[in-house]
């Protein structure tokens, strides 16, 4: 079984590309079920956020090209438009990538904790869709464990910074005293909740939360002393909003150029600061061309983000060491799983031979055969059948120059250790001749 990560993120693609290849929330479960039908795909999970869309795949010789073509076909997107932006990781590199994502080390804002919750939701969705099994379940659980250790043992989580924080930090550069400003937040998810928290801490007292679900908007607004409204009320709320920050899961823009133009006129051209944290975008890009409007997307927050990155470089290096250790541990476990499966198959084959020989001996015994003769015959037959295939393969490997196979045979049966013990006079002193072990020169009598 092999592991693969295939995706696009903020390092490899612009926000325009990322929004084209993002999977809508409502389609993700059915998309997983569809991808599970691709040849070679054994397990699959999907993470689609504003900064990344990634497929996590446990497979048996799957074609990367088939995954790319499926991705484009599912979203009705020309693959040539994003093929060059793909990030592809295999094996231990894929394991390390998942752990870096879980720890926030691959995030736009270094060490941000929100992506861990998003990854847990992605795993939960895949589990519910029946697209995960032993390998991916172990991978995600191990990644979550490493992320917890990174948060506990390093300073990566001190003074946590997120995209939400970066958006509010940028607003501070435009408004000198935010106690005099009002904010309109579009959406009511975790990111908007964090935005509301940071705005309140920055001194903003008037916060309006607009959302499709009014109950959810009320839940967020009430925590920070704000008001809740429906999305339909956004145009009416715009003229009073100095700060507009949007983050919804909508596939189409929530806020258009026309509505903002009207709001600017009613504001008598007082500046309006807007940040669109959504992918696909919630605010039409044309809004940014209007005078008196400062519109930013997640890709525009690099100044705040780079400052955050520099302050956390030491902690990030410690976290990378823990991730490398965690990835190595997981690969060890994965190899052990492969060994268990092989040993189980091997044991089953041996038991089948044993049972067949035992049934044969019991039938002969029931027919009046001599017990001692039958036992000796069964023992010889079992020995010959157990040794035949290994003998043939070892001879073939040795003839082909793969002499390490003989070394493996000796190691597996402890032959060398036993011979050294005998040479040193250690062992059963009652035996006058050394015990004989099968070697590569053993003759098969089967």
Task: Outline the structure in words.
By secondary structure, the chain is α/β, with parallel strands linked by helices. It has 3 domains: 2-156 and 312-335, Glutamyl-tRNA reductase, N-terminal domain (Beta Polymerase, domain 2), CATH 3.30.460; 163-310, Rossmann fold (3-Layer(aba) Sandwich), CATH 3.40.50.720; 370-423. 52% of the residues lie in helices and 13% in strands. The strands form 2 sheets. Strands 7-6-5-8-9-10 form a 6-stranded parallel sheet, covered by helices on one side. Helix 9 links the parallel strand 6 and strand 7. Helix 7 (163-174) runs parallel beside helix 8 and helix 13 packs across helix 14. The two termini are 35 Å apart. The model is unreliable at 426-446 (pLDDT under 50).
Please describe the topology of this protein.
Blueprint: E1 2-9, H1 15-20, H2 28-35, E2 41-48, E3 52-59, H3 64-75, E4 87-90, H4 91-103, H5 114-128, H6 134-153, H7 163-174, E5 182-186, H8 190-201, E6 206-211, H9 214-223, E7 227-230, H10 234-237, E8 243-246, H11 257-266, E9 272-276, E10 293-297, H12 302-311, H13 313-366, H14 371-399, H15 404-413, H16 415-423
Parallel strand pairs: 5-6, 5-8, 6-7, 8-9, 9-10
Antiparallel strand pairs: 1-3, 1-4, 2-3
